[in-house]
Amino acid sequence: MYEIEADPQANRLYLSFTGRLDRAEMETAADETVETAERLRDGFDIVNDLAGFTPPSPEAAKPIKRAQAELKEMGVDRVVRVTDEETSQVVVNAFERRSRDVGYSGETADSVAEAERKLDETEVAGYASA
Fold first, then answer.
1. What are the residues whose beta carbons fall under 8 Å from the beta carbon of 33, sequence distance 6 or more?
2. How many angstroms separate the CA atoms of 17 and 84, rounded?
3. CB pairs under 8 A, 24+ apart, for 94-101?
4. pTM for this model (two decimals)
5. pLDDT tens digits, residue range 51-97?
6. Triad 15, 63, 36: Cα angle to 5°
7. Which of 28, 36, 26 lies closest to 4, judged by CA?
């Protein structure tokens, strides 16, 4: 299951992935992510909640990298991934590896509220806009 929301006022994209998604579901989620991000201004941030997300198959993960590349082209600034003790390190590492492949890095947080606090802080060097 996934949820995708844009907050134009905060210039943030909120993503939430739980359970396991197959290739078709990941394709749809990737397309919806990019479409939703089009409502935001250049320099938007992403809060990506991965708590409870099960590692997808390598085939199902391909759309993730495509969407990450498109988001980078669209002007993503900072990305904070929300994880918990149940979040597989495989998921965290895979998202980070793919994002680095397309030119940005992400931060991590223990909750959506913590992610928002991090993004409300001053800009951090070393992330997408750097």
1. 4, 13, 15, 67, 71
2. 13
3. 94/55, 94/61, 94/64, 95/48, 95/50, 95/64, 98/61, 98/64, 98/65, 98/68, 99/68, 101/65
4. 0.86
5. 988 877 888 888 988 999 999 999 999 999 999 887 777 778 888 88
6. 40
7. 36
Residue 53 backbone phi and psi in degrees, to 5 = -85, 130
Statement: residue 122 has pLDDT above 70: no
Q: How many CA atoms lie within 13 A of 28 on its CB side?
A: 9
